[in-house]
Each structure stands twice: as structure tokens, then as C-alpha cells.
Amino acid sequence: MQTYHAGSRAVQDRAGVRDLADHVGQIIGQGIKPVAAAFLELQPLLILGAADPTTDRVWASPLTGPPGFVRATGPHQISVTGGTRPPDPLTPALTDARDLPVGTIALDPRTRRRMRVDGRLRSTARGFAIEAERVFSNCPKYIQRRESYETVADRVPAAARRGRELTSAQAEFIAAADTFFLATVHEHGADASHRGGNSGFVQAVSSRELTWPDYPGNAMFLSLGNLLADPRAGLLFLDWTTGTTLQLTGEARTEFDEEGERRVRFTLTEVVECAAAIPLRWSAPEYSPANPHPGR
């Protein structure tokens, strides 16, 4: 798979970072190295992004399990034991899947490390396997440190609450968030990425529209490049204490101002809220020193 498609190239050129992107892009490989395999086996959480082939909607979904539920089973493959829970909107797409383009990100708040594996998913008897096409790690920028977590064994997911607009409580949930995950797609695959900042960095400006600043990152512009080529997107917000999830699907576009600053505007198609969706309870966050003030 090529490192960058035309969408990413267009954003890189507008930002004037094509040469830097070419240098940084050398981190992207197809193989899962031993250090990456060891990292994956320590994680209790994996975020998966994909488009549901039936509805064409893009979602970002959380997968959880005891460490080892995600593991490398070869230099180009990872396996996941279990899957999404029934209220999750991606569950139908992952059932009996064959060659489904997916993007995944494993983020460890304890160490501020993150790793992405994009590829093709197929269902297995115990969960699913992903044939890796792109494997790479990102810097710790904008990741909030959470020192520890516990698994709440008796936490039971509530019935999903679906809607086409945000409630006032959901808008407050978003405004309080210091982290969310972004799923995007392109002609040849899918990607899942992380966005972080101090609480208030992402805002619901109406019941159907969100906006957030695109902080300086690794200059690859994989997500923004995908959105330029295909505006479909999925957002996942987590309550790191209660396990409640808020999943949004819709379309997003990037706005550039005269100073070259970027802001992403997301228009909602559907929202799915599920209380106690995941069994993890994390400690309080220590904000990343890289986080700008939300007003900037």
C-alpha cells in the first residue's frame, strides 16, 4: 500500500510539510516487530474504525478484554479474542466479515504510547483476525496520562440509546472530554486515530454539529487526507470512569484560516450512547504538557 494518497498529499502541500511528511512516513511499515507485539499484548483496550458495508456509515468502536486479548499471531497479523458488544453499531459488520477494511489504534494512557494497525479483517471462531497492511507508532503528544485501571467485573452494558441529534447531556459529555477517537476511510482502507486536549477542546456548537482544532502533529495528515477524499467519519467518546460510550457517525471537513490554523467541523447523522459499555475504570487524568488551551 502506498504511504500517502492524493488527499493526504493535498493537505500536506497546503500546510507546506510535504518533505517532513516524507521523512516521518518512513515509520510506516507492514510488519509487526517484537516490541510492537509486546506492546499489544499488554493492552486492555483496542479502538477499531470501519465503514459498515450495509449502511456505508463509518463508526469507531471500543474492544476490551484482559491483556493478551489482542496479540500478534505472525509478522503481519493480529488476532482479537471476543468482539464488540451487541449494542455497538459495528457489530453487524464484524459478524461473518471477510476482507473488511479496518483501522485500529491501541492507546496506553499509562505510558502515553499509541500504536496503529490498519488492514483487512476476517471473522474467526473466537473473534477476528486482521491482516496488517500498515503498522506504526505515534508520538505521545496530547495523550492524557492515566496511571492505572481496574476491570469492573459486574458492569453490565445498558441498552443503546440512538438518536439523530445530541441531547443537552450528550453535548456536556463531549465538552468535558479530554480524548476522543476518530475513524476515517479512503479508497484502499480505513484508519483510526486519537485526538486529545484539555477539556473543552471539542465542542458541540449545535445539536448536530461538532468542531475541534487540529493541533500540530506528525505532518502525515492521514485522517485529514482521508476526510478530503471521503468525508465520512466516526467519533468515539469514552467516560474513562463509568465506561459509558458515545459513538457518532456523520461527515467532517477541515477549515483553514488565513494564518494556516486548521479546524475540523463534523456534521452528525446518528449518535449511539451506551451506559457502562466497557468494563474498564481508569484513574484520573494528568493532562499532556503539549495540550494548548482550548481557546487557542
UniProtKB/TrEMBL annotation:
A Pfam family hit: PNPOx_N
Cited InterPro entries: Pyridox_Oxase_N (IPR011576), Split_barrel_FMN-bd (IPR012349)
Domain Pyridoxamine 5'-phosphate oxidase N-terminal: 167-261
Domain of life of the organism encoding this protein: Bacteria
Protein name (Swiss-Prot/TrEMBL): Pyridoxamine 5'-phosphate oxidase family protein
Species assigned in the record: Streptomyces hokutonensis
